[in-house]
Amino acid sequence: MPTPWHDILTETFKERPELAVDLLRDGLGHDLPRNALVRAESGSLNTRNSQDLHVDTVTVIGPPQQPVHVIPVEVQQKPEESKRKQLPRYAAALWLMMDCPVTPLVICPTDKAAEFYARPVETSLPGYTLPVAALGPARIPRITDPEEAAAYPELAMLSVMAHGTHRPVAEAFLQAVAVLPPDHAVKYNEHAYDISPPAVRRILEELMKASAPLRIVTPMGKEIFSQGRTEGKAEGEAEALLTVLEGRGVEIPHDARERILSCTDLDQLTTWLRRAGTATSAAELFGTDGA
Q1: Any domain includes 291
Q2: Do you know which PANTHER family this protein is assigned to (predicted)?
Q3: Distance, CA of 236 to CA of 260 (rounded, Å)
Q4: From CA 170, how far away is CA 147, in angstroms rounded?
């Protein structure tokens, strides 16, 4: 079953087919035309003998009447021989349809998976061995310039996925997203978060807590901001509670002070604050039931 990671990357290549060209040409050194028309094509193929083939997405370079290069893009999370064996079929079907060179591109979340798919695929057709371009984290560029990230947000999104534990990469991405139109900012930010590993997600969350624009425009940012506001309010309630007790001369042992300051339950803090007006000790404040 396709995962969010698979679906998000597939959607990204469909929405911006130029990304496949950039990765093949600039990331993997393939000789592809510049300044040519690039479009996304249907990934549904048929071999004319009722065998349907489905590629995640297909990028075509050149005008519809005269394509010059085709890139079938597959998003694969783990090594699977059956998936690798499909690549020559995709390439052959597209070559028959488009009558131009075909270069399969496989996007992988790990270098181990990329190495697996990068091996040439031998077929039972004499002389037909298909070279494949596969891209893992090691071949995805580290984008640390916010201006570059804003100019190429899809590539910056992949950079965060691959290198987001390097904080300048995550910082550049979030700074870039903050200057994009709100609807684009929401999409790229949420997608980057969803496709990133847990360690990168934690860094994004930490950075977003300090980023006012992103707190406003993204669902994840609003959630983090809301959590931060709740924590801040709880801290304020705890300080107010201690002020009341100290003002009334109530002795507050160290463990009681720590319990109050570490509490993040606003309802509990409100209950204690009401009791603080009459309590003469920490035991009375917390109540005989321990509440």
Answers
A1: no
A2: SLL0800 PROTEIN, SLL6017 PROTEIN
A3: 11
A4: 13
Q: Residue 269 and residue 263: Cα distance in Å, rounded?
A: 7
Entry pTM: 0.66
Alpha-carbon gap, residue 70 to 59, rounded angstroms: 6
Query: Which of the four pLDDT bands, split at 50, 70 and 90, describes residue 222?
Result: low
- The CB-side HSE value for 62 (13 A sphere, CA atoms) comes to 15
Same domain, 67 and 110: yes
Nearest to 180 by CA among 161, 207, 164, 157: 157
* Gap between the terminal Cα atoms of the chain: 47
Q: Are residues 125 and 11 in the same domain?
A: yes
The CA distances from residue 221 to 130, 226, 232, 236, in Å, are 44, 8, 16, 22
Give the model confidence (pLDDT) of 142-198 as tens digits. Answer: 999 999 999 999 999 999 999 999 999 999 998 888 788 777 777 888 888 888 988
The label of the residue with tokens 């995550």 reads: 170
Q: Which of 117, 139, 161 is the last residue of a domain?
A: 139
